[in-house]
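Data deposition worksheet. Section B asks for the primary sequence of the deposited chain exactly as it was used as input, without tags or linkers unless they were present during the calculation. Section C holds the resulting structure in C-alpha cell form. Section D is free text for depositor observations; keep each observation to a single sentence. Incomplete worksheets are returned to the depositor.
Section A, Depositor: J.P.
Section B:
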Amino acid sequence: MALFDLFSIGHSNIAADRFIAMLRGAGVDAVADVRSTPASRRFPWFSGKALAARLAQEGMAYLPHGDTLGGRPGDPSLYRDGVADYEAMARWPQFERGIGEVLAEAARSRVCLMCAEREPLDCHRCLRVARALGGRGLAIGHILHDGTIEPHTATEQRLLALSRDTADLFVTGQEDRLAAAYRRARAVAFRAKAS
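Section C:
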C-alpha cells in the first residue's frame, strides 16, 4: 500500500461497523468531519454526537471542522450565481485556519477527512479540501467503498478524463487543464435556496 499523509472517506450508507473497519484498515485514529451540518436523519450513527461517541469507544478522535472546511458557507460572498464558489472559499481566511488545524493534527495522528458523499469527485472534501492539502505537498488517499484506497493524483486523473469532452481548446499545460477541470466540477457544489 502506498504511503499517505492523510485520508478521505464519504460515509454514504456504510454500516457503522464497516465504516470503523475501513478506518482501521487505513490506520486512521482521527476523523476530521468536514460536513457543514454534521447530522444524518437517514443514518443517525453518522450524526456528530453519535459518531464522536462511537469513535471514542474505538480509540479514535472526532474533529469537527464543518465551520471552516464545510461545503455550505454561511457567508453570501462565497457564492457565485447561487452556487458555492470553491475558489473563493479557498481564499477565505477561515478555510486557511481549518487547513492549518488539519495539518497540525496530521502531524500527530492519522487523519481522515469525512463527508457524506460516496464518490470523492462528488464532494468538496476532494474538490476543495484535498486539493488544498495536495497543493501543500501532502499525499491523500481516498478510501473507496470497496475498501481500496485511491491516491488523490489518480482521482485527479479521473477528473481530467471526465472533463475531457468539455475541455477548453486554449488551455494547454497539465496544471492549467487540471485547474479548469476543478472549475467545471463546481456543478456538484452546494446550491443556495433562492429567496
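Section D:
The mean pLDDT is 90.
The chain has one domain: 6-188.
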